[in-house]
Input
Amino acid sequence: MLQDRLIASGVTTEQEIDLATLEALLKAERHSNKSSYVSDMAICVIARKRSF
Output
C-alpha cells in the first residue's frame, strides 16, 4: 500500500497521513498562504421525456 511505503521511506509519519490530521494540515497551510482550493466538481442533469 502506498501509505506504508511513504511512512517506511520517511516521506511522512503515520500521524501526518491520518485523514483528519492531513485535512487539518492542508486547511492550515491554505489559510496561511491565503490560497484557494477547488475540489472535484459534479454536474447533475435531470431530464424528463415529453410525451406527445
Remarks:
- The chain has one domain: 1-52.
- The chain has a mean pLDDT of 81.
- The longest helix spans residues 19-32.
- Residues 45 and 51 are 19 Å apart (CA to CA).
